[in-house]
Amino acid sequence: MAQQERAIRTRRAILEAAGSVFDESGYDSATLSTILERAGVTKGALYFHFPSKEKLALAVLNEHVDEVQAPSQPTKLQELVDAGMILAHRLSCDPILRGGTRLTIEQGVAKHQRRGPLLAWRDHNLQLLTEAKERGELLPHVVLEDTAALFVGAFTGLQLMSQILSDRADLEDRVVVMFNHILPSIAVPALLGTLDISADRARDLMGKTLTTHGG
Amino acid sequence: MAQQERAIRTRRAILEAAGSVFDESGYDSATLSTILERAGVTKGALYFHFPSKEKLALAVLNEHVDEVQAPSQPTKLQELVDAGMILAHRLSCDPILRGGTRLTIEQGVAKHQRRGPLLAWRDHNLQLLTEAKERGELLPHVVLEDTAALFVGAFTGLQLMSQILSDRADLEDRVVVMFNHILPSIAVPALLGTLDISADRARDLMGKTLTTHGG
What we know:
Two copies of one chain form a homodimer. Chain A is mainly alpha-helical and 215 residues long. Chain A has helices at residues 2-29, 32-39, 43-49, 53-66, 76-90, 95-105, 111-134, 144-166, 171-182, 189-192, 201-209. The two termini of chain A are 26 Å apart. Chains A, B: Residues 31-50 bind DNA.
C-alpha cells in the first residue's frame, strides 16, 4: 500500500513537471530529460509510468477535465458557473492544467488527440445542461449541444486572450463577463437572480471544499 | 506606376505565401526559403519587402484586421455581426488570415507582438459599440469595453475549437450560436428582431460587395 501510494505520488510529480515544461516550451521543444530533472525522478521511474513523450502529453491532456470538480449546488447552472470559475482560477497556478491548455491550443500533438479535452469538457457541460433542463432551469428554446460547446469555445479563447494581455491576471473577470452575457439567454429569469457570478467565486468555494487540492 | 503596381502585387504574393507557410508550420518551423519558393519571387525581392522572418510575421499579423471590412448597414450591431461572419467565412480560405491566426494563438512570435491583432480587433468592436450606443441600439447597462473584448476572446476560441473538430467547416454555425447567445444581453429588444444572424450572411454580403476581394 505504501508502495502504491509512492507510485501515485511519483506519477503526480511527473505529470506536474511535464505540465510545466509543456506550458513553457510547447510540445515540440519539450524534452524528457528536462521533465525528469524537474520531477526529481529517475529515467526508469519516468519510463515505467510513461513510455514516451507522446504518452506523457496524452496523460496531461486527459488529466485536464478531471481536475475541475465543482461541489453540488442548489441549481445545475450554478454548478456550470462554478466549474468555469474554478477552472479560471486554477489556470493561474496548476501546472497540469496550464500544460494541457497549451497542448490543446498549439499544433504539435496530433489533432485527434487535442480533441479529447474539448470534447470531454463539452460533454461535462452537456450533462449539467441536460439536468438543468429537466429541473426547469432553462428557457425552452435552448439547444443544449450548441450552448455546451459555446461555453468551451468562448472560455478557451478568453483564457488565451487573457494570457497574452495580462498573463491570466484578468481571466476570472473575463469569465464573469462571459457568464453575464450568455446566461440571460439560457436561464429562466427567476433563477438568473439567484446565481453567484463573481470573480471571487472560486476562492470562496475553495476556502470551503477544495483546500485539499492545494494550489 | 506600373512598377509600383508590380511591387504591390509582389508584396501581396509574399504575404499570402508567408501566411500559408505560417499556418501550416507555425513560426518556429517556417523558413524563408519555403516562403519565397511558394511566392515565386527572388530572394532579393523578399528581402526588399521584408528584411527578416520576424518582420514578415509582423506584417502577416498586422494585415489581419484590415482584411475584414463590413459594408455599411442600417444598424451598427448588424455591422458588428457582419464583421464576425465575414471573418469566419474568410478564415476558411484566406491564407493571410489563417497564418495570422496561428501566429497569434501560438507562442513563437514575441507576446507583445501577438497582442496587436487582438487589441486592434477589440478597438474595432469598441468603435462600433460606441456608435451603437449613441444611436440607442444598446441596453443601458452594457459596459462597452467588456463586450468588445468578449467578442474577440469568444470568437478566437470558437475558431480554434472549430479548426480542431471540423477543420473550420462548422465555424460560421458556431459564430451564429455565439451572436444568438450574446446579442440579447446587449441589444434593445426592438432592434434584436431586425438583425440578420445567419450562417449564410457572409456569402450573401460577399455576393453583393466583396467580390473584388476574391477568396
